[in-house]
Amino acid sequence: MNRVRLLLARHLWLQLTLSLLVAVALIVVLFPGRPVLSVLLRTAFTSVGAIAVVLTRRRKERRAAGGSADAVVALDAKLRRGEVPSAPEERGAMRELVAQRLHRMRHRVPALICLAVLFTAVTLLMVFTGTVRQAVGFAVLTVVFVGWIIYHGNRRHERLRTMDAALKAGEPARAPR
Asked: What percent of the chain lies above the pLDDT cut of 70?
């Protein structure tokens, strides 16, 4: 699993392509009868804004980590393991990366509440206006996706806070499990 994570972290285009293909597959399953090419083109077109946000975020992280995607991947691996960098320039890069990510996560609780409300509203709309397949599909998607986002968001936030405290204190951090 770690190799897949590293591959996706290094090659952002692969991550975006796989996300697009999963979205297309989900739409085709939930709304059968639509041409796959049409769904693919529509999904790609509506994903342009999200792709721009991801690319902008990645560019800022590369700049904070020293200019390369490999530097971001290396710092992210250390962050996951809870290893505080020992080299001063690497500590500075980690400090900048952690500060950026903590800043981005400052409104995570209201955003998660909004996301849960929106997903629940769409699920309820499918219950009242869609087929049984669509209602069940959206219900499962809502529970799995929102639960996954909340769990991993909390883990990531705890890792960032632990690393931030360790960088400020100058002592080794423990990776939260």
From this structure: 95
Amino acid at 156: R
Tokens representing 119 are 């997903």
State pTM to two decimals.
0.76
- The single residue listed with the structure tokens 């690497």 is 90
The model's pLDDT over 39-83, given as tens digits with 9 standing for 90+, comes to: 999 999 988 888 888 888 888 888 887 777 788 888 888 888 888
Q: What is the dihedral of CA 16, 22, 24, 28, to 10 degrees?
A: 180
DSSP secondary structure string, 99-123?
Answer: HHHHHHTTTHHHHHHHHHHHHHHHH
What residues contact residue 93 under an 8 Å CB cut-off, 6+ apart?
64, 65, 66, 71, 75, 85
Q: Give the separation between CA 99 and CA 169, rounded to whole angstroms.
A: 15
**Distance between CA 98 and CA 111 in Å, rounded?**
20
Query: Do residues 76 and 159 lie in contact, with contact meaning Cβ atoms separated by under 8 Å?
Result: no
Written as six digits, the tokens of 158 are 């705890």
Nearest to 30 by CA among 121, 141, 128, 119: 141
